[in-house]
Design a protein that fits this description.
Mean pLDDT of chain B: 89
Helix content of chain A: over 70%
Radius of gyration of chain A: 22 Å
Number of strands of chain B: 0
Radius of gyration of chain B: 17 Å
Shape of chain A: globular
CATH topology of one domain in chain B: Helix Hairpins
CATH architecture of one domain in chain B: Orthogonal Bundle
Number of helices of chain B: 3
Strand order of the largest sheet of chain A: 1-2
Low-confidence stretches of chain A: none
Helix content of chain B: over 70%
Structural class of chain B: mainly alpha
Largest interface: A-B, 41 and 44 residues
Largest sheet of chain A: 2 strands, antiparallel
Distance between the termini of chain A: 34 Å
Order of helices and strands of chain A: HHHEEHHHHHHHHHHHHHHHHH
Order of helices and strands of chain B: HHH
Strand content of chain A: under 5%
CATH class of one domain in chain B: Mainly Alpha
Oligomer: heterodimer
Largest sheet of chain B: none
Chain lengths: 488, 103
């Protein structure tokens, strides 16, 4: 039936955001050689425009949800939620990076093209309903990310970050693929809803040892991608070594998309195995929170500190995942949205303070920021308080919903240990704030220039989002709650 | 007379490749050898996919294997590029000498 291979206009419309971003990325690469070195920011504007248009197309395609390309993709509220999130992260990343790249003399079209391609991959991960598609989305996102991590070719830290990200990332992908291959072998399909029915059907219920092996491989791969313990060791190195705007992107976009993938696999295809997955998930959640928080306590480098903090935040989201429930999925989605905005915001300020060649990335370099640049210090304080989970900020409601779901579903100890962990986390976030306001600026340090317009816009935008989600959490939670219904 | 080769034989071969690849990644110091070990795991996946595809009498697994091969090539190209960039700056491809950032 060759006719059925032709995608309908409806299907193409559902896939329009990804197609637009791919075209824009290709166009940027084509225009790059013809753009004079002083005019590279035009390419940034092009990328920014493409992302905003993709946001619009996502909203259009959300009005007509449904499958595309023979059930390979499923454009539903869940996918739309994560599409919006990764596109918003992309917009913020471009705002942060233009000045950073220009001041170092590294601005070129490839950066924006790679960023767009990575976002295409993340959008596919968010909407994929099928393990082959998930793998392709993951790789499109990852391969572009490996290059972005090492974007400043002459910087040794960048080289090292890229190599470590590449080696451990592709190792994880290979393990994930091995799990996918076994899943295909024992269920005879790669479609998540068909996998679910194969696992539920008592007549065709596969051998338990084999399903356990497939689940274990999948878990290892997924845990690597969301930097969950015991597979988190690459995160601090990669986040510390990569250029600061790229780190902002890594800590938000790929992580949110990886969690989207994780949620879909655990809550649809492998939902019948939830008794087997539960111990894996809660042990990993607990270990991730504890390792992230304890390691963060003794860091002196801000980027590394935020890397460990992002590990511990992955642990909180895993607590929501452990509950294997619809409300848990909604709580995880809300948390990821809150986390993306506060984390990207924090990295925007770090990018500003780090200056050219990232010479100032120690916590001590933030000393006196409260008097030198009160606005920047104030914004960073907002983000750090939100990461701590102080009321009125998004981080508070994110943690609140997660621990509430954990208590409702009977994971009382996990909730208590999680709460203790977030109290511990307050120490290292507050330490940064104390340094900013209580310690005098070091002598003889170079002048801190006024923030670039893009950085300011990204930081203020993230701060508004952080406050908005903290004051009106129901606006987003209702959407997440609608989206999670697909899991019932 | 040799016994016929069954699906199980392919699965054992694939598991062996996975094991060799994993051990290589964990023990070897040279980043190029580590990359080769990753390729071994990806080939273990391909052997698995094609064996299952034949066992289930479906074509999906073979299509998937083609995708895996394509992606593995793209990944290897990027990986070698990263390695060359690193070698220009540090003159080494040994993992334990790449220690600017704390492990």
């Amino acid at each position: 039936m060759p006719a059925s291979f032709m995608p309908s206009a409806q299907e193409l419309m559902r896939f329009a955001p990804e197609m637009l971003l791919t075209l824009a990325g290709t166009l940027i690469m084509l225009l790059e050689p013809f753009t004079e070195s002083g005019n590279k920011s035009r390419l940034a504007w092009l990328a920014l425009g493409a992302l905003l248009a993709a946001l619009g197309l996502t909203a259009v395609s959300a009005a007509d949800p449904g499958p595309a390309f023979s059930n390979m993709l499923l454009i539903d509220e869940f996918g739309t939620f994560f599409r919006f999130l990764v596109l918003a992260v992309g917009v913020l990343t471009i705002l942060i990076s233009t000045h950073y790249l220009r001041s170092g003399g590294h601005e070129s079209g490839e950066f924006y093209a790679l960023l767009l391609f990575s976002i295409v991959g993340q959008c596919i991960m968010a909407t994929a309903n099928e393990l082959i598609m998930l793998f392709i989305g993951l790789e499109v996102s990852s391969i572009a990310s490996y290059v972005l991590a090492g974007y400043l070719r002459d910087d040794k830290r960048n080289n090292e970050s890229a190599l470590k990200y590449f080696l451990l990332g592709s190792f994880a992908t290979a393990f994930l693929l091995y799990g996918i291959a076994w899943t295909y072998g024992i269920t005879g399909t790669t479609d998540l809803s068909l996998i679910r029915s194969a696992l539920l059907n008592p007549a065709s219920r596969p051998n338990e040892v084999l399903t356990a092996a497939a689940s274990a491989f999948l878990f290892v791969g997924l845990a690597f991608k969301v930097s969950a313990a015991p597979f988190q060791m690459w995160t601090p190195d990669v986040y510390q070594g990569a250029p600061a705007p790229v780190t902002a992107f890594f800590s938000a976009g790929p992580k949110a998309a990886a969690f989207a993938m994780f949620l879909r696999i655990v809550l649809t295809g492998f939902e019948p195995l939830k008794k087997e997955w539960e111990p894996l998930l809660w042990v990993s959640a607990l270990a991730t929170m504890i390792i992230g928080n304890f390691a963060a306590l003794r860091q002196t480098n801000v980027k590394r500190l935020l890397a460990y903090s992002s590990i511990s935040h992955a642990g909180y989201v895993l607590v929501a995942l452990t509950t294997h429930s619809g409300p848990g999925a909604a709580a995880a989605m809300f948390y990821l949205a809150a986390y993306c905005f506060m984390n990207v915001g924090a990295f925007a300020i770090i990018t500003h303070v780090a200056r050219r060649d990232e010479r100032y990335v120690e916590i001590a370099d933030l000393a006196g920021l409260g008097t030198r640049q009160p606005l920047m210090a104030g914004l960073l304080t907002v983000f750090l308080l939100s990461l701590t989970g102080i009321p009125l900020t998004a981080g508070f409601f994110g943690k609140f919903y997660i621990f509430k779901v954990a208590l409702d579903q009977g994971f009382i100890w996990l909730a208590i240990l999680g709460l203790l962990n977030s109290a511990l986390a307050a120490y290292y976030y507050l330490r940064v704030i104390v340094v900013m306001y209580m310690e005098p600026a070091p002598e003889g340090e170079g002048e801190l220039p006024a923030p670039a317009a893009g950085v300011l816009a990204a930081a203020v935008g993230s701060a508004i989002a952080t406050f908005f989600l903290g004051l009106f959490p129901s606006s987003l939670l209702d959407f997440a709650d609608k989206a999670r219904r697909i899991f019932n | 007379m040799l016994a016929p080769i069954t699906t199980a034989h392919y699965l054992v071969l694939s598991a062996a490749l996975l094991l060799i690849g994993t051990v290589g990644i964990l023990l070897r110091r040279n980043a190029v050898v580590v990359m080769m070990s990753i390729e071994l795991i990806l080939n273990a996946v391909n052997v698995n996919l094609i064996a299952f595809s034949r066992h289930l009498d479906q074509v999906n697994g073979q299509i998937f294997a083609i995708f895996v091969i394509c992606v593995a090539v793209a990944e290897a190209a990027v990986g070698l590029g990263i390695l060359i960039a690193l070698f220009r700056n540090k003159e080494t491809v040994l993992i334990d000498e790449i220690d600017l950032l704390k492990w």
